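agent> fetching stored inputs for the alpha-D-glucopyranose docking request
agent> found them:
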Amino acid sequence: MAHIINNKSILLSAFLMLVGSYHGKGLGNDKASAEGTVYENPAKTVDDRVEDLLSRMTLDEKIGQMTQVDRQFLERDSDIATYFLGSLLSGGGSTPAENRPQAWADMYDRYQKIALSSRLGIPILYGIDAVHGHNNVVGATIFPHNIGLGCTNNPDLVERVSRITALEVAGTGIDWTFAPCIAVPRDERWGRTYEGFGEEPGIVARLGKAAVRGFQTAELGNPGGILACAKHFVGDGGTKWGTGRNGKADRGDTQISEEELRAIHLPGYLSAIEEGVGSIMASYNQWNGTYCHASKFLLTDLLKEELGFQGFVVSDWEGIDQIPGDYKSDIITAINAGIDMVMVPGAVPFGGEPYTRFIKLLKEAVEEGSVPVSRIDDAVRRILRIKFQMGLFENPYTDRSLTDKIGSPEHREVAREAVRQSLVLLKNNNGLLPLSKRAGRILVSGKNADNLGNQCGGWTISWQGGSGPVTEGTTILEAIREAVSPTTEVVFSIDGSGVKNADAAVVVVGETPYAEWEGDKDNLALDENDLETIRRIKNAGIPTVVIIISGRPLIIEPDVADWDALIAAWLPGTEGQGVTDVLFGDYNPTGKLSMSWPRSMSQIPINVGDKKYDPLFKYGFGLRY
Ligand code: GLC
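agent> prediction call returned; pasting tokens
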């Protein structure tokens, strides 16, 4: 009898599930038995939970999991449940009304609560570009951008930097960062050069691996760990100048052989996968004319089959829209190529596709057979596996014990350590450096001496970043004032005028913030105002230390010959004291160039290993006191 009853109850629940799944409404209570379902039981294996949950999902629910929307473009918050969205993101600058940690955490928890109210209660993954700290959040610790970390060549430090970033991200509830960027920038004219660790694949592989470990800890699911995302797959740093957006570099065509692609741009992914990276972002660029987002060879044959990547592939922002053809064909091409989650993101006010249209067209594609159900199931399996591994079903809300630690002195101390290890001493005539803290008078000058936004660079509070007091931190001028003795006079003159004498001048020049294609430049010479400022001070006969704040090496010949000392500080972030630690000798500089420093624009691209190689400063160069 018991057997018959069992058979009957199995038949009944199968029938009800069939009925439920067809209408997509599902059943009020899906519990197969008293102790709940397999997928809700953390004692079950991840694979068992994935398969059980997948078997219960309607096509609408599966497609929802593959859909990522920017929270600023939600038609209504309830759409998270209505469309079973698998993920939200904050693109650069997509912040809550009050840009403070508590408000972020409240926003995350509100969205998560809606997601959990859906029929199967699948939690969302929430992604953000925490690429040099939790850089969208006012008050967060902002670390040096990757080019500076590359010059530290210190995997342990990079792991600690990423660990702290993860804690600050988790303190706002957010569980996924679109980092590390493991681009290998080969042409400094590319606006995203500073997002890469360096031009040599080995250093990118070493530091990328360390960053993944820092973000995710030794395995997904540990407290304070977040999901990492190695990006952008593949060859983003190798595009040919002139083939990109606005005829420049970004999102251009990487015109190299498969052998060179594997040698230069793939090692970072091998090490990230070895470290267990849970997500990888497809790249905007083409490889020899085929968009990465459309390449089954790259995304499936190479990444998933040959390299054995078990996580999921997320598209870049509207990354599938650029594929030739209409939106529906873009969707079919991209999903069949191996994209598992689409960053739609629903930017209708800016001409983007509504996420409801993405969902509708993908469902049509599946129902007409253009996208096999097996491909949908593979994508959803990959996404669910990560969500179970991360423990999101058990701990879906913000760990508020981490929220108050955002921007803490301890975190900033590690950022300061990263700054001083990232600085590269390129010139030091007559041992001008280190300066004395007891000098009579120090002149501080240059547009980047007292400008927190400029020293942080792009991807800071907003997408492009911005000049001025954009967040909380210490400018280089403030750090100098703090460091010197009470008897030392520190005079600030932004253009160097009005000061006839001083024991030394510190002139902080370079670039102002930019991100992505906004930073593509075909002339990297130091700007005229900067050069004028330095000349004015030199003409006053004051020994001059030039500090360059920039996202890449700049063209500084012939003027550099007149400078007494030169430090490359890259984009150090909020902790300006890391610069004065080196300036006054509390730290003997150890930084080594992770990018060759060209003499002129005509030398670019110039990379270590080139047959003809005569840079101003070689890859790996850096002086000590
Ligand atoms: C951007 C970038 C990518 C970033 C994404 C989300 O366009 O290419 O690095 O993660 O959009 O902001």
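agent> quick read of the result: The longest helix spans residues 2-23.
agent> awaiting further instructions
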